[in-house]
Amino acid sequence: MFVELISFVVACISALLAVAFFTLLERKGLSYFQMRKGPNKVGLMGLPQPLSDAIKLFSKEYIKPTMVNYFPFLICPFLSLFFCLLLWMLFNSYFFVNMGGMSMMLFLCVSSVGVYSVMGAGWFSNSKYALLGSVRAVAQSISYEVSMSLILMSCLLLVGSINLINLLKYQCVCWVFFINFFMFMMWVVSMVAETHRAPFDFAEGESELVSGFNVEYGAVGFALLFMAEYGNILFMSFLCSVMFFGGGMLSISMGLSMSFFMSLFSFLFIWVRASYPRYRYDLLMYLIWKSYLPCVLMILIFVSMFVKLMCYM
């Protein structure tokens, strides 16, 4: 029990440090995409910039809005960060190895429950802009969780297990990317939509909703929501690398491969944000319910028939 706790604490601290420097990578990347300089005033080449931003946000005076339901409004950012860090229990740690066959069930349960913190942040703000942003976010998350769950199920059907370790071992011979290429493309789009990132950032549409569901938050509350969002981005990049590019004959090669693809997918979020304008909300919903869902169901049926045929052979 003590070793599992230490492993979880180390994974959380590593995730928070990765979040801090991923924000720096995003600001640097967006600035070079737009042919300008990013943050470079704090320290050497702006490297301590995330730490100075954190100190600024956590030391600011906390202003309580007049109309909010105070206790639920205050607790929602902490819940959002808690659910984000809970997902990092699936990272390559002692708990991850000793979890048995229920690792993917933990991901599905926690990612489903995490929607409530976003809904609460907008609802308990008692602001129409925050409420509209939270309603958009909840509808978007629930819609794309359906496709993500079915895509995940298609990958796990190939393995015959809901354990993430078995999925890694299965890919020692061949990556799932080569078997399920169309699923991979739909997973990437669903991953961007699930994390509410551009061009699907309807929960924080500045031109329509000021700042969306977090419009009433400042100082510590805004920092916690910010950390939870970027923590989810990094975790989804990790999960994508494990699902489609896992494996490796040695633990060292497996770790290097996972780190490379995790960094690649994290940078993909920045690249997409710099390249595409915001999508239309109705087209986003049509995309999942009229295009992705029928395609995912057809591929899932095909994969299940293929697995059944291989069992008989």
CA radius of gyration is 20 Å
Strand and helix order:
HHHHHHHHHHHHHH
Number of structural units classed as domains: 1
Main β-sheet, in a few words? Answer: none
Look at the structure and give the mean pLDDT.
84
Content of β-strand = under 5%
Are there runs of 5+ residues with pLDDT below 50, and where?
none
How many helices? The count is: 14
The secondary structure category is mainly alpha
Helix content: over 70%
Q: Compute the separation of the termini in Å.
A: 44 Å
Counting DSSP E segments of at least 2 residues, the number of strands comes to 0
Q: Please state the overall shape, judged from the principal axes of the Cα atoms.
A: globular
Transmembrane segments: 5-25, 70-91, 103-124, 144-165, 172-193, 219-245, 252-271, 291-311
Subcellular location: Membrane; Mitochondrion inner membrane
Pfam families: NADHdh
Organism: Amphioctopus fangsiao (Ocellated octopus)
Protein model, in words:
Helices cover 73% and strands 0% of the residues. It has 313 residues and is an all-alpha fold. It has one domain. Helix 1 runs parallel beside helix 13, helix 7 packs parallel to helix 14 (281-312) and helix 10 (181-194) runs antiparallel to helix 12. The protein is globular. The model has no long low-confidence stretch (mean pLDDT 84).
